[in-house]
């Protein structure tokens, strides 16, 4: 099992809407993530900078690389594009983060 983290950018004033949408995450999207080997996925907000900090665990044989090719993820990206920083294809701008410390 591997833990990874990344940062995304939320548009100012969109915290409540972002939380509302994620509180109602589509069941087919949650299933897709789990089937790809993702678990213990959480997203945190820095309210001062509007940075979203995501951390998740994934299995050694994960298939996360296939997730962007799925129809449900493309629809989710389109659904979220109005409230966060995205690329031209509406995928969220993600910045990988490097682990600097871990206390087991």
UniProtKB/TrEMBL annotation:
GO biological process, one term: rhamnose catabolic process
Protein keywords: Carbohydrate metabolism, Cytoplasm, Isomerase, Rhamnose metabolism
Gene Ontology CC: one annotated term: cytoplasm
EC number: 5.1.3.32
GO molecular-function term, one example from the UniProt record: L-rhamnose mutarotase activity
Binding site for substrate: 18, 41, 76-77
Annotated localization: Cytoplasm
Biological role: Involved in the anomeric conversion of L-rhamnose.
HAMAP family per record: L_rham_rotase (MF_01663)
Name recorded for this polypeptide: L-rhamnose mutarotase
Organism of origin: Martelella lutilitoris
Taxonomic classification: Bacteria, Pseudomonadati, Pseudomonadota, Alphaproteobacteria, Hyphomicrobiales
């Amino acid at each position: 099992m591997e833990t990874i983290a990344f940062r995304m950018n939320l548009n100012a004033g969109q915290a409540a809407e972002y939380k509302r949408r994620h509180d109602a995450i589509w069941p087919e999207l949650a299933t897709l993530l789990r089937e790809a080997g993702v678990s213990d996925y959480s997203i945190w907000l820095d309210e001062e900078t509007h940075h979203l900090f995501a951390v998740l665990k994934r299995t050694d044989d994960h298939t996360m690389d296939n997730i962007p090719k799925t129809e449900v993820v493309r629809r989710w990206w389109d659904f979220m594009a109005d409230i966060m920083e995205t690329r031209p294809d509406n995928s969220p701008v993600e910045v990988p983060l490097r682990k600097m410390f871990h206390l087991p």
